[in-house]
Amino acid sequence: MSDPTALPNFPPPSDEHPLRGLVIDALQDLGLEANIDKDGDVSFKANEQTMFVRSLENSGVRIMRVFGQWQIGEQVPQDKVMQLSVCNDLNLSMTMVKTGLGKDNLVVTSEHLVTSDDAVKDLLGTSIQIILATVQQWHERVTKLAERIAQQRAAAQEQGAAGGAGTPGARTPEASTDPAASTDSDSPGDGGGSDDSGTREGETP
User: Fold this and answer.
1) Is the four-CA dihedral 177, 179, 182, 184 of positive or negative sign?
2) What's this model's pTM, rounded to 2 decimal places?
3) What is d(CA 196, CA 205) in angstroms, rounded to the nearest whole number?
4) Could you give the angle at the alpha carbon of 134 between the alpha carbons of 128 and 140, nearest 5°?
């Protein structure tokens, strides 16, 4: 009799988790090695990136959630508002995918309502490609956004410096005009000056 420990480690029977069994079969058909982690999710690697599939089955409703998470490196702008802004832009502009932040990780998911067993493989293949593309898009957009904001701030500082330099020059003519006006009013040739001199002469004994 063969040693049971020598037998390969087969995945659990598909009838225990029908959708998860379909996911494992589909990944194998796509040439990807599937494993089950401690949370019961199916893990696999695509383009050297670790991803997961969570199968939810309840009262005949089957939902397949494909997702991955990537640590945000130091080379990426660390402004959380900026990062979340890019997540929002991607959520509004792309289909079949959601992005968000979990601690210091970028989380990208693609969720599907499975209505046909035959659709699992196609949904998986599409989800993998769109998730990987979204991760790349996120990094590119957040970098470009940071560069654009930096350029806008630099332009605003230059305008502020230029405006501050021009202000004293604008005040100089005004300051020089006032003394000239007061000097003219006290000038001996002015009508008021003649009246004053006449009055003084009339008061002389």
Assistant:
1) negative
2) 0.69
3) 16
4) 145
